[in-house]
Design a protein that fits this description.
This protein is 0% helix and 31% strand. With 59 residues, the chain is mostly beta strands. It has a domain of 39 residues. It has a four-stranded mixed β-sheet with strand order 3-2-1-4, with no helix packed on it.
């Protein structure tokens, strides 16, 4: 996992591994996925993308 020192400064060192995110056009929210299992993990309420998580491209 990525590290975040010092706490509260709003940036991340490195990327979050084994995770990806995809924009859901129906709900206009971002959904985080586990790249190993393909299962959906979490969804953002505010409509902004997850920080430090790579984006998937929808086809």
């Amino acid at each position: 996992m990525a590290t975040n020192p010092p706490p509260g400064d709003g940036h991340r060192k490195g990327a979050v591994r084994k995770r990806s995110q995809v924009a859901n056009t129906l709900t206009e929210r971002y959904t985080k996925r586990d790249t190993e299992t393909g299962r959906f993990m979490a969804q953002k309420k505010d409509g902004q993308p997850f920080k430090g998580v790579r984006k998937e491209h929808q086809t």
